[in-house]
Each structure stands twice: as structure tokens, then as C-alpha cells.
Amino acid sequence: MVIKTKVNYPFIYFLMDQNIVFVYKIETQNYISVLDLSRTEAWGTFELEQEEEFETFDHYKSNPIQGRTFFANQDDMVLLVESINQQIQKNRQLRTDGPVHIVSSESAAGSLRAGLERPKTVIGFPDFLSIGPLGELDKKTGQTFRKDWLIENINIEQEVEYPVKFSNTLREIEDIPNEVPIYIWYGNNANEQICMRFLIYLLNEKTNEIFLINSTELYEKHINTQKQQQYISNTSQMESPNLKMLFEKNKKATALSEKERSHLQLDWEALAKTKEVLRIWSNGEIKGVPENHTDSTILHMIEDLQKQQGNNDFIKIGKLLEEFFVQMDGFVDIFFLEYRIRHLIYSGFLEIKGIPKSLWNYSVRMRNE
């Protein structure tokens, strides 16, 4: 469907059919999602006598249609959201009264919002960059290629929202005013190390001071003690009070130099050219590995769990993944592990009970020979 658009800010008009105009009222400074479009009070529907009238259409001079329902498919909804967010970006007022914190996890972003003092802005990156293609993620072509790979292989939740969240996050980063300091939180795991480098790449034209906060190293230094040892591999595992304390402890850190920023940017450019779809953190380095890297470990764990049970019963995927994280030294995306379990099912190594539509809907066991 070809959607014609016209702006009468804060209203935006969409000609969705030959003579049907949807009018959306922008009432927020925040970027919206597909789910936000379901708010019926933000919409008005109008009917034109002829399509040509759209160029001069003004909803103030027309009467809305009452009691009629119209349908838009998911692709059209994404296009509508994109158009609305473009107008929000053009007209939003940027905050300049506090630092910006960026972290490679939406859950960690929530903890930072709760823990850090105001004023501040917190941006959570809504993706897991240790898996999947990385090429040209600052462009629509690369984002679409990555999205298609994820949808084909990974049981991602709310797949229609994924490209919208990704685009919105890039907009938020683009919108950061030049006069505020930027703090990038990351840890010693593949996802956060890669995301930190991508963020530095995205910020390459910004003149802001940029500070790095290695949360896992600071946690080990300031919170872990001889009496209380807890293995923390990523920022999202930390509670809000601890994040606040780590920020206070790190306030005297120096900003990245131009040389350091350039080095990290080159790191990202090299990563973006790699072809592996699984990357791990090993011996202080990001390493690309074959996508079957965890397969043998998964099979051995299933065998061990079946021996512990003393029978050949099926094992819940949730229990298997929990065991994986307890035993494995590293942080691998839970959805990637589930993808490999499905691959082992399809390849004949495992039997399945249930429907693999989500992590919690099925069980597996070793296939009897």
C-alpha cells in the first residue's frame, strides 16, 4: 500500500486508501512504538470525496467518521510509526540539564533510571550484538538484514517492535546535545563490549566528553568482598543501589581521548565486517566462533541432567538454560541457545515434547538410537 503523508503539526495526516484519511495527534516528546498506535483517542478518521482533495485537506474543517473500523497490516503500522517519529524528532525539545547514560540492555537502563539521581537521561540499547550480523547497523540496509536473520532464526519477542525500537534508540543517540557528558556502561562480556564499540562509532561526530564505566570490573573492586562473593558478568545483573554507588566511585574518571575513541571506532568497523553470527568474550577479547560453538556443551548437559534424574524423561528448556548459565564461563544470549537447541532437534540429536514457540513451551531429551 502506498501511504501519502501530510503534516499539520502536531497532527499528521495519512491517506491510506483512495479517500480515507487517518489523522494522528502527536502528544509526546518521546518516540512511539507500534503498540502506541492502538490508542484510539489519538486518532481521527475522515473521508474525502476525491483523492485529490488530500493536498488541501484540513481536519479542522471536516467532520470525522464515526463508528467505522479500518485495518492496517504490520508493515503499514511500522511505516506510520516511522513517519510519526520523524516529526517528533524534528519538533522535540532536547534536555540539556544532566548527563546521558547509555547501556546495552533495556533492563539495565531501568535499573539506572531508578538508581541514579536526577537530572539525567538513560538510553537502553534494545538488542544483543553478540549474535547475528553486524554490518552497516547505522543504515537501514544493515538493520533490515539483521532483522531478517533474527526473525528467521531467533524466537524474539514482539518482532514487529524490534526495528522500531532499534530506530528509536539511534534517534535518541543522535539527539544528544553536544554540551552534556555521556557515560557508556558496559561489562566484560561479548554483548556489552561490542555494543560499547558500536555506541562509540555512532557518537563519532559528537563533541561531547565520553566516559566509559566498566560495571563488572568496578563491581569486583568495590562490592565483591572476601565475605561476599557474587559472580557478575553483565550490567543487567546489578541492582539500582549498586549502580548508583559505582557511578559515584567512578566520578573522577577521565574522558576518552580522541585517540581512544578512534581506536574503539576502528574496532567496531572491523567487527562489522566479520561474518560470524556468534561472538564470545574470551581472555579479554571479542572472538567470533562458529554458530555450533555451544552445541556439544548443550548435548553433554542434557545427558548429565538425564543421568541425574535417573530416567529418560524430557527436560524443560528453562531448566536446561538455567544449568547452562551456571556452568558456562561467559554470557551467551538465551535466545541464541534456544535457537541451537531447535537446530539440534531438527538435526535429529534431540527429541521434543511440546511446541517450540517460546522458551517455556517445550521439553527435550536425547534421541534414543
Automatic annotation (TrEMBL):
Xref: InterPro entries: DUF1835 (IPR014973), DUF3658 (IPR022123)
Residue span, DUF1835 domain: 100-214
Record-linked Pfam families: DUF1835 (PF08874), DUF3658 (PF12395)
Positions of the DUF3658 domain: 251-361
Protein name: DUF1835 domain-containing protein
